[in-house]
Structure formats: structure tokens, C-alpha cells
Specification:
The protein has helices spanning 19-32, 39-43, 50-60, 67-84, 94-103; strands spanning 16-17, 89-90. By secondary structure, it is mainly α. Helix 1 packs across helix 4 (67-84). The longest helix is centred in the middle third of the chain and has 18 residues, at 67-84. 18% of the residues are buried.
Length: 117
């Protein structure tokens, strides 16, 4: 068995700027659940994991927090995010780094369209 070195990084915020797309997707998901929050309250929590994010928001709003609701919000966010995905643009140098990774045969199935080779 050959052991090969591995390098993993998250494209979000590294090669692409998708903060606002995530904010809008979370707002849509929360609205679908009857939770009305302004975008600034959502924005300040972007970067947290999805589970931590929903727990914090629901705690702030004194809404009922159930595992089912957290799962539903995560699913609604993922669906809404797909609609905004086409708006994402690479950060400066992001496309260059992606091309370099492609040359090294780094596999990435989830690259946003703006950064695909």
C-alpha cells in the first residue's frame, strides 16, 4: 500500500467569495420556516458550521430548536444556495490556483462554475 500526501482546503472564502450568497440562502431558508431575520444578523454568523449557525440563530430568536428543524433548515439552505451559486466569483488569484490544482490532478467535484477549468 502506498501512502500519498493529501492537502484539503475549503474553496469557500479561500478561492471564491460566497459570503453574500450564503447570507441570502440562509435568509430564504429561515423565511420558509417563519423566522424573519435581517441580513446583518445572518451575516455576522457566516463562517460557522451549519449546525452551530442554526443553533445560534434559533437561540437568538427564542424559536423552538429541534433536531428536525435544524435538519430542515440545513436542507432549505442547501436548496436555496444552489440558486445563488451561479453568482459566485473567484477571489483575486482564485482561478490561477484552481488551474494549478487541476494540473496536479487534484480532484474537486464541488467547484463553483466561476472557478471551474
Amino acid at each position: 500500500m502506498t501512502i500519498r500526501p493529501v492537502f484539503i482546503f475549503d474553496l469557500d472564502g479561500t478561492l471564491v467569495d460566497s459570503v453574500y450568497e450564503h447570507v441570502l440562502a440562509w435568509q430564504e431558508a429561515l423565511t420558509a420556516e417563519g423566522i424573519d431575520l435581517s441580513v446583518w444578523r445572518i451575516h455576522r454568523k457566516i463562517g460557522m458550521s451549519g449546525g452551530l449557525f442554526t443553533n445560534q440563530l434559533l437561540r437568538e430568536t427564542t424559536q423552538e430548536i429541534s433536531p428536525e428543524r435544524i435538519e430542515r433548515l440545513g436542507r432549505l439552505h442547501a436548496q436555496a444556495y444552489q440558486k445563488f451559486r451561479g453568482r459566485i466569483r473567484p477571489l483575486p488569484g482564485g482561478s490561477f490556483v484552481k488551474r494549478q490544482l487541476d494540473e496536479l490532478a487534484v480532484f474537486d467535484a464541488e467547484s463553483p462554475p466561476c472557478i471551474r477549468s
